[in-house]
Amino acid sequence: MNDATSSGKRILLIDDSPVVADTVRDALEPFGYQIAWVEDGADVPAALAQRAPDLILLDVMMPGVDGYETCRRLRADSKTAHLPILMLTARAEEADKVVGLELGADDYLAKPFGERELLARVRALLRRVARARAPTQTLQAGPVTLDPASHQAHCAGTLLDLTPAEFELLHTLVLNAGQTLRRETLIEQVWGYDWYGDARVVDTHVQHLRRKLRQCHPDDEELIATVRGVGYRFAA
Question: What's the pTM value of the predicted model, to 2 decimals?
Answer without folding.
Answer: 0.62
